[in-house]
Specification:
Number of domains: 3
Shape: globular
Radius of gyration: 22 Å
Largest sheet: none
Mean pLDDT: 80
CATH class of the largest domain: Mainly Alpha
CATH topology of the largest domain: Growth Hormone, Chain: A
Strand content: under 5%
Number of helices: 18
Number of strands: 0
Helix content: over 70%
C-alpha cells in the first residue's frame, strides 16, 4: 500500500505538471520576455523526456527500478527548483531540459513499478483508478495554476511540484525493497548515444517543421532516419542492447507500439484543433471550447475503467477493438462538424474519442507489461510510453502542415487571428468573414480526415492482437527479479 501511495503521488505530480505550466505561460513570458522561445518551454521538456524514456527503461531492467527512479526524480526536483529562479526565457528553457531529463525516468518507471507490484488481473482492475488520478490532476492543474499566479507569483508554478516529488521519494525510500542479484553489465553507451541523437533529431525536425522549410525538413528527416537505422543495426549486435529490438517480435508489443503511436497522433487532432473550430467557425467563446474539450478527459477515465472490466471478462483484443469502434465513431462525428450542429455535436465527438483512448491506452500498457518478465518489463513499458509521445510530436507537425497548406494565402493577414477572438470577430465585414470561416472549416476538416485514416490503423492493430489473450489467461510471466 505504501508503494501504491507513492505511485499515486508521482502520477498526480506528472499529470498536474503539464497543465499547470501551460496556464502560467502567458504570465511568465510577460515578465521574462522572449516570446520567440515560448513554444520551446514545452518542446525542450518533451524532447528531453522523449529521448531519455527508452534509456531509463532499459537501465531499470539492468539495475532495478529504485536507483534509476531516484536518479530521475532527483533531476526532476532539481530542474523544478531551478526553473523558478530563471531570469530569462533562454535560461528557463535550459532548466526545462534538466526537468525533462528527470521526467523521462519518473513516468515510465512509475508505471513499471505498478506492473511489478500487481499481477495482470489486478493490474487490469487498477488501470481505471490510475487513469482517474491522472485525469483529476490534469483538471486541477489549470485551476491551481491560476490561483498560484494570482497569489504567489509564477516561480511557485514550478516549486509546487517539489514537495510532491519529495514525498514520493521518501515513501519509496522506506517502502520499496528490491532483491537485485549484482553482476557485471556491458552497458551499451554507444547505442544510447546514437539513439539519443537519432530520436532527438527526429523529434526536433517535427517540432520545428513549420519553420525549417521543406528542403531543410527533408534533409534533417533523412539524417534522423539514417541515424535510427544505424542504431537498429548496432542494437542487433550489442551484447546488452539499450533498447531490445527483439521485443518487437512479440506480437502484443508490436501491435501495442503501432496502436499507441496512432493514439498519440489522434490525441493531438482532438485536443489542438477543436477549440479553433468552435471559436473560429462556430463563433463561440473560449469557455465553451474549453468545456467541450474537457469532456474527453472525463470520458477517457470512463473508458479506462471499462477497459479493465472488458480485459478481465474477455481479452485484450476485445477491449482495444471496442475502443477502436468508439474512435471511429467519434472521429466520424468530428469529420462531419458543421457550424449548425453546434458545440454539443463537437463535444459528443471528442467524448467518444476519449472513451476510445481510455480503452486502448491502458489496455496496451497492461498487455505489454504482462507479455514479458521482470527483466524486460521496464523496456516494454518505456517503449509504449515513448511511441505515444512520438506520435504526439509527429501528429502535431503533421496536422500543422495540413492546416498551413489548407490556409495558404490567408495566414499572411490578420483575419484568421481575429476570427478566433469573439471581441474582434464582429468587427470583420461579411465579405471578410465568409471566406476565412470556410477556409478554417476546411483546414480542420482535413485534419480530421487524416485523423480518421490513423484511427483505422489503430483499429487494425488491435484486430491483430492474439485471440483470447487477457490478464487472467495466456502468457503472463510471474515477476522475476533477475538483473
Amino acid at each position: 500500500m505504501w508503494i501504491l501511495s507513492a505511485c499515486v503521488v508521482l502520477i498526480f505530480m506528472s499529470g498536474m505538471e503539464g497543465t499547470v505550466v501551460a496556464t502560467a505561460m502567458p504570465t511568465i513570458v510577460s515578465q521574462l520576455g522572449g516570446f520567440e522561445l515560448y513554444s520551446w518551454v514545452f518542446s525542450a521538456y518533451f524532447l528531453a523526456q522523449g529521448v531519455t524514456i527508452p534509456i531509463y527503461g532499459r537501465l531499470a531492467d539492468l539495475f532495478g527500478r529504485k536507483r534509476v527512479l531516484f536518479f530521475g526524480l532527483t533531476l526532476f526536483i532539481l530542474g523544478s527548483v531551478l526553473c523558478g529562479f530563471a531570469h530569462n526565457m533562454f535560461v528557463l528553457v535550459i532548466f526545462r531540459v534538466i526537468q525533462g531529463i528527470g521526467a523521462g525516468a519518473v513516468q515510465p518507471i512509475n508505471q513499471t513499478l505498478i506492473g511489478d507490484i500487481y499481477p495482470p488481473a489486478q493490474r487490469a482492475k487498477m488501470a481505471g483508478f490510475f487513469s482517474s488520478i491522472w485525469g483529476i490532476a490534469a483538471l486541477i492543474g489549470p485551476v491551481l495554476g491560476a490561483f498560484v499566479i494570482a497569489h504567489a507569483g509564477w516561480p511557485w508554478i514550478f516549486w509546487i511540484s517539489v514537495p510532491i516529488g519529495v514525498l514520493g521519494f521518501i515513501i519509496l525510500a522506506f517502502a520499496l525493497h528490491e532483491n537485485i542479484q549484482p553482476r557485471q553489465h556491458q552497458i551499451d553507451y554507444l547505442g544510447a548515444l546514437v539513439m539519443a541523437v537519432g530520436i532527438g533529431l527526429l523529434m526536433y525536425t517535427f517540432i520545428q517543421a513549420s519553420t525549417l522549410g521543406l528542403q531543410n525538413f527533408l534533409i534533417l528527416l533523412g539524417i534522423s532516419i539514417a541515424t535510427i537505422i544505424l542504431f537498429v543495426i548496432h542494437e542487433r549486435r550489442a551484447a546488452e542492447p539499450i533498447l531490445p529490438i527483439d521485443l518487437l517480435r512479440n506480437r502484443v508489443l508490436l501491435c501495442g507500439n503501432i496502436g499507441c503511436f496512432g493514439i498519440g497522433c489522434v490525441v493531438m487532432a482532438s485536443s489542438s484543433f477543436l477549440p479553433a473550430y468552435i471559436q473560429g467557425v462556430m463563433g463561440y467563446s473560449p469557455i465553451v471550447a474549453g468545456y467541450a474539450l474537457a469532456i474527453s478527459s472525463v470520458t477517457w477515465i470512463g473508458g479506462s475503467w471499462s477497459g479493465g472490466r472488458i480485459m478481465l471478462r474477455s481479452s485484450y483484443r476485445a477491449a482495444v477493438c471496442i475502443g477502436g469502434v468508439f474512435l471511429v465513431c467519434g472521429t466520424a462525428m468530428l469529420i462531419a462538424l458543421d457550424p449548425e450542429r453546434g458545440p454539443i455535436w463537437a463535444a459528443t465527438g471528442t467524448g467518444l474519442v476519449g472513451i476510445g483512448m481510455g480503452l486502448n491506452q491502458n489496455t496496451y500498457m497492461v498487455a505489454a507489461q504482462s507479455g514479458v518478465d521482470w527483466s524486460q518489463r521496464g523496456s516494454a513499458t518505456s517503449m509504449i510510453a515513448f511511441t505515444r509521445m512520438l506520435g504526439q510530436t509527429v501528429g502535431a507537425a503533421l496536422y500543422g502542415g495540413v492546416v498551413n497548406f489548407s490556409l495558404a494565402g490567408m495566414l499572411g493577414g490578420d483575419a484568421v487571428n481575429r476570427m478566433m477572438d469573439p471581441d474582434l470577430r464582429h468587427k470583420l465585414s461579411p465579405t471578410e468573414i465568409g471566406p476565412v470561416m470556410n477556409a478554417v472549416a476546411d483546414a480542420v476538416h482535413n485534419v480530421y480526415i487524416v485523423s480518421g485514416i490513423l484511427v483505422v490503423v489503430i483499429l487494425v492493430a488491435g484486430f491483430f492482437l492474439p485471440k483470447g489473450l487477457g490478464p487472467s489467461r495466456g502468457r503472463s510471466p510471474e515477476p522475476k527479479q533477475a538483473a
